[in-house]
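User: Sequence in, structure out. Go.
Assistant: Echoing your sequence, followed by the structure tokens.
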Amino acid sequence: MTEPHDVTVSLRSAEPEDAAALQAFWRQEVAPCDLITGDDATLTMSLPRLADQLAAIAVAPNNLLLLAWAPEQELIGYLRLAASSETAIAQVAELGLIVAADYRHQGLGRALMATALDWAEQEAPLHRIQLEVQQRNQAARRLYQTFGFQEEGHLVESYRAVSGQWLDTILMARIL
């Protein structure tokens, strides 16, 4: 485990100007991480297109991209609530969370979750938040359970690790 960082962290919604920092964070933290699924499109997307996507997220009433910043504008974590614009499923958001490796197990994931769930309960037209987490990621599962997420399913061999090993994932959700 890394040494705790004694820094002041600020949380805020993503803005189009964050495109380069988000892409760099994705390249450094998300792409090599074997605990989450990644979207290679973020790595290869042009910065203007990514900025357009961030602008669209910012105005969507059922979507949130919350960023965690350390001093000197270092992006150290994010939480994404992604919901469709289709009427039948617009009230259901998928949650994705990642904290930079050097900042894990220090409360940042908890702060991101608390802020995002406050937003979801008070401002967003959401009814349900769901996620998939690898069965082996006990720390994340405990975090989600702390915030009222319930296990709803066990997906056998649903994720392939970098090593080639097939891993199980757990479907979790919370009704707001």
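User: And one key feature?
Assistant: The mean pLDDT is 91.
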